[in-house]
Specification:
about 50% helix, alpha+beta, globular, Nuclear Transport Factor 2, Chain: A, five-stranded mixed β-sheet
Amino acid sequence: MEIAKLVAKYEGKGFGRERAEINVLMEGTVFAIFRDFPDAFLLFGGSTLVLFHESLRHSADLDLLARGASLPSREEIINSLRRDLVPVAENLQLGGLRFLAEGPDAQEGRIFVATDSGQRLFRIDLTRFGSAIESEVETHAIEGELGDSAVIKTATKRLLLLQKAEAFLLRRHVKARDAYDIYFLQGIGATLTQQLQAHLEDALLANEIDSIGVLDRVARVNGDLCSLELRPILPADVYSPLEAARFEPLREALKALYGKWL
């Protein structure tokens, strides 16, 4: 698909021009990585919801979970991205791109994608730790513009829901975006299987989180937090009804998710 049509696709969904262009670059990033390193990673997190499940919640990071013993270095990933993304950025009149690596070693950490002027567009998070259940991995075959192809491996909606459920409880600070993603996932039919419920229960027990702890975190999803975090990353027609309802739909989604433990 032509770059202009890709941008128009995201604008048509409700993203502003700048974020639509970032989504196009992120889509190109995923394609390049899975084409060149097909067995190395699993894509998960909020960007998966944007790229494959029609979410309108802006995500500025791509989460990649290591799956194999043989992983590319950050420099190898950057070389792939430089080949694929620089022409796209030039087409979008963004100028050149810079790729900035941070982290403890060559196979873990972050890669920031920025313009030559230093504006950071998005980041790629490389991690070796997380829930990767083989029965909860799905594939998406993508055709490239030059006749090449890639098979993108992503977490299923169910596994994404588990990961968001764990993140909401285990982050140091409550994130309204986790609550929104849980609400969104339930809205598109995601539920936890018995196996995934068992994983969540293990996380609760291991971190000594009881019903009081869960309800305390749910209560923190209030107007101040949601206004601060969600207003900038949701289209107005998605954000405004939630604000009008005082974000009760988000808290209800959380109570439904954790209902077994309340």
